[in-house]
């Protein structure tokens, strides 16, 4: 069996003694040459280097062709345009992580006024300019509470919620009781009574009552309240809209694994369910985002608060999606608030 070790065979080309072993083959005289039974390790690398050099030369020739350069540039531009269009369409499909859909839903739009759009009232003049109803414009000929508190008479809307957590029914009861207490009493002696004086007093009482009622309607109107009280009204609206004490009679309840209906008895209004908390956070995010958009980017405090609210809503949305993804409560919440997958999927960055 032939070994693969290198042998140094002497070749007699010069006169002198012949040495068959040398301590270092690299220092052997030129009269001796070395050979191996295995191929040279540099042979393969030399062949690869020549092939690579030929390929590079061919590539240089190809890229110097003007037609090839223009064709490659056109392909690259088409791919970049397609990638840009795909990214834009994906972002549009996901929506805005803060606001949701581009166009606000009617329910979200009503949060700015803290009342539904159909209950809002904006008086205008004949030329289309806004009309300001003064206290002297109140029609004193109105006698009933409904006519006195009408928006056309007071100049303000009469929504379901009023300032200071009053309701329209409570305001009407208070004004009616005030009118009964301040109504002038007739003379108990009919012989000494003056009918004309009593009629004038009753007429004066109706005029003053109509003016006082219109003034109270303006004082308790949401349009004349501040943003803090408007936010409190929106919180109450979210509880009334998404609370399960209201939706249990409208939406189909969730069923367990056995197919049985899961319904819990409630003592009071629902204020802690996921949909109510998501609605309250959405109302706060809308208010804070509008305030942050109108200021400079150096408003670090509002930016941090907005980021905290958005991430808290994202956690609640993920939890509620796992619990009731195909349920009617989930669809009702997403449709009314105008939320998109960007509000609960991926990483949300507030800039």
Short description:
The chain is 51% helix and 2% strand. The protein is an all-alpha fold.
Described by strand count, sense and barrel closure, the largest sheet is: 2 strands, antiparallel
Overall strand count? 2
Give the low-confidence spans.
1-15, 18-33
Give the helix proportion (percent range).
40-55%
How many helical elements? 12
CA distance, first residue to last residue: 77 Å
Task: Decide which structural class fits the backbone.
Answer: mainly alpha
Please tell me what the overall shape is: elongated
Taken as a percent bin, the fraction of beta residues is under 5%
Q: Radius of gyration over alpha carbons?
A: 44 Å
- What sequence of helices (H) and strands (E) makes up the elements? EEHHHHHHHHHHHH
- The strands making up the biggest β-sheet line up spatially as 1-2
- What's the average pLDDT? 76
Question: How would you describe this protein?
Answer:
The protein is mostly helical. It contains 12 helices and 2 strands, in the order E-E-H-H-H-H-H-H-H-H-H-H-H-H. The protein has a two-stranded antiparallel sheet with strand order 1-2. Helix 8 packs antiparallel against helix 10 and helix 10 runs antiparallel to helix 11 (300-323). The longest helix has 29 residues, at 66-94. The radius of gyration is 44 Å and the shape is elongated. Mean pLDDT is 76; it is low at 1-15 and 18-33.
Task: Give short descriptive properties of this protein.
351 residues; mainly alpha; two-stranded antiparallel ribbon; disordered N terminus
